[in-house]
Design goal:
586 residues, 26% helix, two-stranded antiparallel ribbon, two-stranded parallel ribbon, 20 strands, 18 helices, alpha+beta
Length: 586
Amino acid sequence: MVMKKQNYIALLSLLSVALFTSCKDDDSADVDNLTPKDEVFGKANDVFSAEEWYPGGVLGTTENASYSAAAPSVENTEGMEISFNKGEDFFEHLYTFTEEPRKGLGPAWVRNSCIHCHPSYGHGKRMTRYRANDFGNGYLLVVYHPTAGTDLDGVAYAANSYIRQVTGMPQTQAMSPFKAPIDESQIDLKWLNVSSMPSGIPMKFPDGESYSLIYPEITIPQTAFNTNPLPTNYEVRLEGTIGIYGTGLLDAIDPDDMKKQYQQESKFVTLNPGIWNAEANDWAPSAWYTLADGTKRIKKFTYAMTRASLQDGPGANAIWNITNVTRSDRHYFYTTAAWAKAMSEDDDVVSYIQQNGNDKSSLLYPYYADGTKEGIRQRVNQLLSINTNADSTTFRKYFVDGAPYYGKEEMSDKDYYDFMVWHRGLAVPAARDLDDAQVQRGKVLFNQIGCATCHRPSWKTGEDRYWVDNSIKAYAKSVGKDPQTVLPQFAHQTIWPYTDMVQHRLFMKNDIRTGWCRTTPLWGRGLSLRITGAEDRLHDCRARNEIEAIMWHGYSKESDAYDSVLKFYNLSKEDRDAVVKFLRAI
């Protein structure tokens, strides 16, 4: 199978990989076939089963070294690959204010394209500054209250809760004359060195080889917030994007199988009480996520385990809240009342609209109202603060001949359907070099020192009766199809993601908000340097390679992985290299 031509943005990101791989003009470096040795590929040996060459199972694995390939489930379904290709276009290209088919950017946004956060379809890259338009910056700003308290306007908040002044995925860009909720020019990002490990593990291996660890310190002064009220008592952390390939396969994991995993691990480690009730040996009430139609499902997506379905999770949510592009089931802004109030009170904003918003073809016309400053203030506050589904019927973004125009979505149900075919249908790259003796030794060691306890190698997917949101239902109805047949499915596949789908604590310096982080899948990660030009790991890309990622797991003796890291530390260099080579093979 030959992959499609990469767009110009993807090609730009591949330039940085020139030292590591050669690129063809039409087929970028991530499409090389993985089967140069047909006599061993896909065959079992003393350590690996035949299935392990296909981490995404028969329906979810591509034999190309690619993060962007369509899964066989897509290729084998008539007409679905056309939708996949169209959906890919929505991922790869820039969104604009007015140009079809990717229109509707703003009034405030996080990024103006998906691929900015997921360069070459992989993880975001470690950055030395925070600028939304730096290609490869997949960072989200996590601005939260470390302790409970009360806002300046008397509203109480809980410890570890996101501040309410900005959106959960904070926006640093806005349409003129509006000012971004956070002025990113005031964001200060520093990378600091670890001088010693609190766990007592030396930063030099017994054989004399040393390693170094760095971590981010990010601060945002109160003056950077264009909100009313301003936030108080807050801290900032970074969370980087993860690879999006294979997400449909994770969605197909049965929650009953996840429950068994939680029950097993809870015998040995403390699990997040927000997800697992240790006393009842069952899900905690807050582990259940209520979807748009009232359906409840167990949370499984994001580092924080905040989402329960791919159709109300990573990409389905991001295509709306990253770009602020509306659709039929999200026909409202991703904004906050605090930002709306600040913009309505800003004399520069109001004056600019008064001078430039009277033209009905202007994007500012909906805010012009009666042309008076007071009328403009009221309209700005009204439109920018309509940010809940309950208010969507009153939403006004476009005015036609002076009258409000209802129901004009910026992303059609068909376009959203194509996007979700692409998102669910991204294949996992096949494993590599499983016939190599060093890779085989690495797998044995990975299991022996206990890494596989959290990075559970394999799962068997369930029936994959995916949840169907209203936009997909609307599309399916328009073409007379069962909604359960229109998206890629991965039922009854043996997959090898190397994650237990459980949150653990590593107690790292400047750790993730709450300290609980879902075990990141390892499948395909070994191709990151080759495909994206970077191999940064962990939730904020602090680890620059596999060794650093492993050793961060042992930063504290309280870490769930401390014992395994101590065993890794005491391995010979030859064995450490074997573990790394194994990680790069799967």
